[in-house]
Specification:
0% strand; mainly alpha; 60 residues; 43% helix; single chain
């Protein structure tokens, strides 16, 4: 994603290795698929959807 594009390759690999499942960073197509579902489903509203592979970053 653009947010991570500025990071060095080693930093992206390290971050991706911390994702429990699947063991990689998300792909733009996966985020786009979620957006398509949100737009297409009229029953979905006001919800927080985490699309993060179960990665939880510790607070600073």
């Amino acid at each position: 994603t653009p947010m991570l594009a500025g990071l060095p390759e080693e930093a992206r690999k390290s971050l991706g290795a911390q994702v429990p499942h699947p063991n990689r960073l998300g792909r733009p197509s996966e985020y786009a698929a979620l957006v398509g579902h949100i737009v297409a489903n009229p029953m979905l509203n006001g919800e927080v959807i985490r699309l993060d592979g179960a990665l939880r970053m510790a607070p600073r």
